Amino acid sequence: MLRTLRQRITLTDIFIWVIGLAIAGVVIFGTVRTLEQGRYSASGWLDLTIKGLALGGVYALIAMGYTMVYGILKMINFAHSEVFMSGPFTAVFIALGLSESGFLDKQPIISLIIITLVSAAVSTLIAVLLERIAYRPLRNAPRLVPLITAIGASFFLQYAFRGFYGSGSKGYPTIAILKGTWNIFGIEVFKIQMIVIISAVVMMMVLYAIVQWTKVGKAMRAVSEDKEAAELMGIDVDRIIVFTFTLGGASAGIAGILYTLLFPVVNFYMGFFPGIKAFTAAVLGGIGNVPGAFLGSIILGLLEALGPNLFLTGLGIPSPSQLKDAIAFIVLVLILIFRPTGILGERISQDKA
Amino acid sequence: MKSESSYWVKSLKNGLIGGSLSLLLCVIGMVLAFGTTYVITGVITMGQVFVLFPILFESYFTVRKVSPKNPLVSLSIGGFVGLVGGAVLAALILIGQIINVRTVLLNVSPDLFALLTFNLPLTPGILVLLIVTVITGVIGAAVLLLPARIRSALTQAVLYIVLLGLFRDLIVTVIIRWGFLQNVFRWLFAQSGLSILGAVVLFLLVGGLVYWRLGRPKKVSVITRSPRQQRVFRWGTWAVLAILVLLLPVILGSYFSEILDNVGIYVLMGLGLNIVVGFAGLLDLGYVAFYAIGAYTLGVLTTTEAVGQLHLSFWGALPFALIVAVFAGVILGLPVLKMRGDYLAIVTLGFGEIIRILVLSDWLKPILGGPQGIQQIGQPKIGTFTFSNQQQLYYVILAGIIIAGFISIRLKDSHLGRSWMALREDEDVAEAMGINKVITKLLAFAMGALFSGLGGVLFATKIGSAYPQSFSFLVSINILSLIIIGGMGSIPGVFIGGLALVGLPLLLSQFTDFRYLIYGAALVVMMLVRPEGLSPEARRRLELHEETEEIPFEEPATVLKTPGELGGS
Q1: Any residues with CB less than 8 A from the CB of B559 and at least 6 apart, and which?
Q2: Cross-chain residue pair B543–A326, CB shorter than 8 Å
Q3: pLDDT by residue (tens digit) across A114-153?
Q4: Model pLDDT for residues B533-565, shown as the tens digit of each residue
Q5: Domain assignment present for A39
Q6: In this predicted model, what pLDDT tens digit does every residue of B265-279 receive, in sequence order?
Q7: Chain centroid to CA A251: how far?
Q8: Residues A12, B523: C-beta atoms closer than 8 Å
Q9: How many whole angstroms separate alpha carbon A84 and alpha carbon A106?
Q10: Would you state the pLDDT for residue A124?
Q11: Beta strands B385-386 and B381-382: pairing type?
Q12: Is residue B480 less than 8 Å (CB to CB) from chain A?
């Protein structure tokens, strides 16, 4: 027993554990120091927490696209971040038009619904086209081929949209009724953040219901379990894959609008970081697993909002929020090293990938 | 037997696809960007080529697919495809008249409409457009009706005209440097593009040459030279090539030398990534990290600015920069040893981004200079001679490429190279065969990091500074595209990819905006059509075409059942 254990532990394992422990040590040390210094008040931390939850909600909706496609095709849809970008980048013109005509201020809710629908429609269209043109012909190709295609598609889409709408950033109009705060149990909460959290949770529940309780959802799960067997059972695999991309595209489009509520600026490269973070969240929760994607996203959102201030301030690092994007990547690396299955997932990162 | 009506459905569909592709090129802005670049002066612009090419291609493709027996049907199918494609463009023009599309789609401007309607008023303009697209479609179909020999003569002649017309400015710049050439070739070119006379001469010349060459009976290769002569001949070719490569900066001048330098640095890094991705099959998207590490290490060690502490010389700092890069490669390699494929790609991407974020941060600003970067980076000196301008640095970069190329070639069929390929094909089997996975993979990462670090060093010394903006994710994508287009695992492919992907966009300023668009499209199209790349490695080609080669094995069974049909067909 002891001998087999000793054989299994190699130098690299030790090295990896040392890195892991070092990072854990830095995090704990930094946290303790930060809390000792007491630079932020309790309400400050609460604000950050709610911000993190809102971010997590957005990531969760994007992560759904990654996780469902991964579940079915066993590939990372690298271009999903561009699917996410395409919706809000297109819908900004509708939003500006509505704002100019004054309709946005008169009927803010209807306007928001229109904008969201346009965004979801565009993202869905892009996702479905992507599947049809770039991925379907390569379904049985060697593993690297679809991944490279996805990277290519991602860049093509980014720069095609830059060609369509220009390289500059465009601002979303502010919606008057979403400004200000609500008082919930004595806590002042930004309305926008609350709305984002609620919408994201509702959307996640709808998606979960579709996957879990509808016939087409059952078919999706069957296809992800075993494509050939599902086909033999009379499931039209192509149709299910298209449906998966539709669902992922639509939720990315809605996520895009929620994201622009939080950060009201759109441009052609806006998809990269949210996309990569949503992917991290999907891996964190266990890729291929819908509740996992939600859980992972919330954790990542919180880590991103709290992490830099909590871990790094105490270490005397100036402007720690500059490093917030690095945190997501470090989380990703650590997860893949120490628990490749994610929190709720089965082991795939090695065997099926 | 397909019914005639299915022809038309197919043509309608393909016409729509062709029209949409043209439309896409218009909306993205490529057509407009090349709207005033004449291929043949006064006759056709590159923008018009971009509009018409998808339609031509689709009509050719449709006719080839349905291959009707009657040539008239062929031609009318081609014309129909052209008509549908033209109708899509006409629809855009009409919509543009009713509503102002430009507020949303930047490039759908009056200029674009003027270009599409040949500067005519609306109604005659659209009519002319439709006539031109129909003619294009008919030409696409007619090409198929020609004998193969004429067809390839024609295509090549047209290809040469388009290429020479497109690169007119560059060719003229070089010609002007050499006065005597100017008098010989000047008449070929006009103010923009080829002159009409030049185009006609070129067409006849290239077309005639190809036609003549194809007409000759195929030579049976008989060795007529003695082994000694062969050896002399081979060495002679190499010597001429080497002299040419050495003289390039002198021949081409400083502007082209700078482009050559950039291409060279990318080729150098491509050689490194080729080891990681091509040989060992580890998809590394964070390759830019080592580039940045190499550049910044050199910067920190040699800069004469206040941030620098050591003020070493270039040669003194070079080994340190390389060691740091290799060390970073091993550090990255260790945790990802167990990962494969997609996950490895994302983690390496993350690593690249972490490095960029760290470099940009206020935290490391005292050492790395933050967003301002490091200036005043040392340049290589030999004795009292400093390699300072682009033409001189070319030789330093060339030396780097030669070393990297030599190492790559030697490694490829070595024990280590074969271990990498074994790991690429099947990790578990390779391990069972006694290959040490840890060492082999780490060596791949280390080699890749070494070349990338060297690339970074050369880049930093070339521009004399290191900025965080130079080390974005796009660099990794650039290098990845380059080796994939060239052919994964193929060393000549790296050079071809480097010239095509880095050289061309630098040469043609109009391409700069569409560079990554074209890379993206090229990656997708390449994976769909020719996943082994332009200059494939033999082994990889076999691998990727497994499926197509298996088909003949299944066919005999069905053929044997119906021997009667064999005689009939």
Answers
A1: B566
A2: no
A3: 888 988 999 999 999 998 888 888 887 777 788 888 888 9
A4: 777 776 666 665 554 444 444 334 333 333 444
A5: no
A6: 899 889 889 888 888
A7: 10
A8: no
A9: 28
A10: 92
A11: antiparallel
A12: yes
Residue A142 placed within a domain = yes
Q: Do B517 and A153 touch (CB under 8 A)?
A: no
The ipTM assigned to this model is 0.83
Whether residues B543 and A323 touch (CB distance < 8 A) is answered with no
How many angstroms separate the CA atoms of B269 and B451, rounded? Answer: 6
| Cross-chain residue pair A323–B516, CB shorter than 8 Å | no
d(CA A107, nearest CA chain B) in Å: 23
Domain total of chain A: 1
Question: Do B342 and A147 make contact, defined as CB atoms within 8 angstroms?
Answer: yes
Higher per-residue confidence, A10 vs A171 = A171
Question: What is the C-alpha to C-alpha distance for residues A123 and A81, in angstroms, rounded to an integer?
Answer: 10
A156 touching B (Cβ < 8 Å): yes
Q: Give the residue from chain B lying closest to A94, CA to CA.
A: B104
Say if the Cβ atoms of A152 and B360 lie within 8 Å. no
Evaluate whether residue A226 is within a structural domain. yes
What pLDDT shows up at residue A5? 56
Read out DSSP for A182-205?
EEETTEEEEHHHHHHHHHHHHHHH
**Average pLDDT, stretch A72-95?**
87
Q: How far apart are CA B487 and CA A337, in angstroms?
A: 31
Q: Which chain B residues in 255-294 lie under 8 Å from chain A, judged by CB atoms?
A: 281, 283, 285
Residue range of the domain that includes A258 = 66-306
Domain definitions of chain B by residue range:
1-145, 254-471
- pLDDT for B540 equals 62
Give the minimum alpha-carbon distance from A346 to chain B in angstroms, rounded to a whole number.
15
Q: Is the dihedral of CA B538, B544, B547, B548 positive or negative?
A: negative
Residue A246 belongs to some domain of the structure? yes
- Distance, in Å, from the CA atom of A115 to the CA atom of A95, rounded to the nearest integer, reads 6
